[in-house]
């Protein structure tokens, strides 16, 4: 995992710098995210790694699949994919996309927060949670909510590397662990 992150870092930084200078961060986010999904498919992964495909053929395949998924592939994106293909780095596109998003969030002073709740939050609850997290992290928070009824009650918040487990299920698990230690 660390090796993939290390390999992807210079590509993510280069893509970010280019997108920032061109004022096209949102477009690059979409294209890189789509490309990451494309290369994660086992059939595509196998195809781009096949020697018969060739370096440029693998990049063209990914570009065509990204286009087929509805994302525009301009000359800059095609050149970026060709560079990755030439250096046998297309398989790290997922990590490139992750690092690109981290760089974008830092530049835009935003934080994506995943909130998993037992029941859907009301708009008022979302607003209160967003305001509290914005104050805590001193960033604009983009809230992404999902529902998991197995939590019984409460919520789990994922903000970067921080995980706050305030779910009833989590509390019961901690209580059970504590009781078995004593």
Keywords:
Peroxidase, domain 1; Glutaredoxin; 182 residues; 4 strands; alpha+beta
Q: Note the run of SSEs as H and E.
A: HHHHHHEHEEEH
The fold-level CATH name of the largest domain is: Peroxidase, domain 1
What is the CATH architecture descriptor of the largest domain?
A: Orthogonal Bundle
Task: Tally the beta strands.
Answer: 4
Q: Are there runs of 5+ residues with pLDDT below 50, and where?
A: none
Category by helix and strand content: alpha+beta
Mean model confidence by pLDDT: 92
Indicate the overall shape.
Answer: elongated
In whole angstroms, how far apart are the ends?
37 Å
**CATH superfamily (homologous) name of the largest domain:** N-terminal domain of the delta subunit of the F1F0-ATP synthase
The amount of beta strand, in percent, is 5-15%
Summed up, the domain count is: 2
Strand and helix map with partners:
Elements: H1 2-22, H2 25-40, H3 42-49, H4 55-68, H5 75-86, H6 93-108, E1 110-117, H7 123-137, E2 140-147, E3 155-159, E4 162-165, H8 168-181
Parallel strand pairs: 1-2
Antiparallel strand pairs: 1-3, 3-4
């Amino acid at each position: 995992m660390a090796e993939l992150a290390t390999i992807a870092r210079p590509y993510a930084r280069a893509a970010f710098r280019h997108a920032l200078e061109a004022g096209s961060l949102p477009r690059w986010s979409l294209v890189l995210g789509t490309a990451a999904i494309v290369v994660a498919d086992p059939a595509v992964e196998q195809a781009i790694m096949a020697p018969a495909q060739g370096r440029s053929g693998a990049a063209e395949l990914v570009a065509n699949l990204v286009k087929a998924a509805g994302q525009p592939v301009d000359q800059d994106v095609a050149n970026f994919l060709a560079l990755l293909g030439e250096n046998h780095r297309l398989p790290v596109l997922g990590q490139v996309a992750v690092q690109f998003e981290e760089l974008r969030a830092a530049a835009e002073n935003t934080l994506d927060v995943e909130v998993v709740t037992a029941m859907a939050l009301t708009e008022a609850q979302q607003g209160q949670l967003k305001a509290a997290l914005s104050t805590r992290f001193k960033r604009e928070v983009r809230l992404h909510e999902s529902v998991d009824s197995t939590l019984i009650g409460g919520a789990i918040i994922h903000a970067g590397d921080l995980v706050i487990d305030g779910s009833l299920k989590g509390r019961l698990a901690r209580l059970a662990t504590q009781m078995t230690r004593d």
